[in-house]
């Protein structure tokens, strides 16, 4: 399967890196990088969204499950960027497990 969403995770990560470098106003990503709680802001989001993901799975709500999974992936990418990591680190870890 191949379509124009193939590279979407790389594209979103590139936008996150750009937000980190430039901190534009009116950007949710910027608000995470500049939050007074520091990295705890994104960690709290990941906790909340994990619960929402579990509830969506329990309800067998596939649309909500996709929504919450996307929220988690986005916030996980922000966390990787905060830790000076990137998708190569994630890919390497997954590849090692094959
Ligand atoms: N993928 C995301 C993304 N996923 C989630 N979010 C934000 O994360 C927040 C989630 O927090 P909440 O759960 O409180 O919000 P919510 O809408 O009530 O969430 P649910 O109840 O639906 O779970 C919302 O404000 C969303 O807008 C995201 N914000 C940005 N992105 C990507 O980042 C790019 C840059 O965004 P900006 O930095 O805002 O320009 C965008 O173009 C997107 O590609």
From TrEMBL:
<keyword id="KW-0368">Histidine biosynthesis</keyword>
<comment type="pathway">
    <text>Amino-acid biosynthesis; L-histidine biosynthesis; L-histidine from 5-phospho-alpha-D-ribose 1-diphosphate: step 2/9.</text>
</comment>
<keyword id="KW-0963">Cytoplasm</keyword>
<keyword id="KW-0028">Amino-acid biosynthesis</keyword>
<protein>
    <recommendedName>
        <fullName>Phosphoribosyl-ATP pyrophosphatase</fullName>
        <ecNumber>3.6.1.31</ecNumber>
    </recommendedName>
</protein>
<keyword id="KW-0378">Hydrolase</keyword>
<comment type="similarity">
    <text>Belongs to the PRA-PH family.</text>
</comment>
<dbReference type="Pfam" id="PF01503">
    <property type="entry name" value="PRA-PH"/>
</dbReference>
<dbReference type="InterPro" id="IPR021130">
    <property type="entry name" value="PRib-ATP_PPHydrolase-like"/>
</dbReference>
<keyword id="KW-0067">ATP-binding</keyword>
<keyword id="KW-0547">Nucleotide-binding</keyword>
<dbReference type="GO" id="GO:0004636">
    <property type="term" value="F:phosphoribosyl-ATP diphosphatase activity"/>
</dbReference>
<dbReference type="InterPro" id="IPR008179">
    <property type="entry name" value="HisE"/>
</dbReference>
């Amino acid at each position: 399967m191949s379509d124009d969403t193939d590279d979407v995770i790389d594209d979103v990560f590139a936008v996150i890196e750009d937000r980190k470098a430039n901190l534009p106003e009116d950007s949710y990503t910027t608000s995470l990088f500049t939050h007074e709680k520091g990295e705890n802001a994104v960690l709290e989001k990941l906790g909340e969204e994990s619960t929402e993901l579990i509830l969506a799975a329990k309800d067998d709500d596939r649309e909500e499950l996709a929504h919450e999974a996307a929220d988690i992936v986005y916030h996980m990418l922000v966390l990787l960027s905060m830790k000076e990591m990137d998708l190569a680190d994630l890919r390497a870890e997954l590849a090692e497990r094959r």
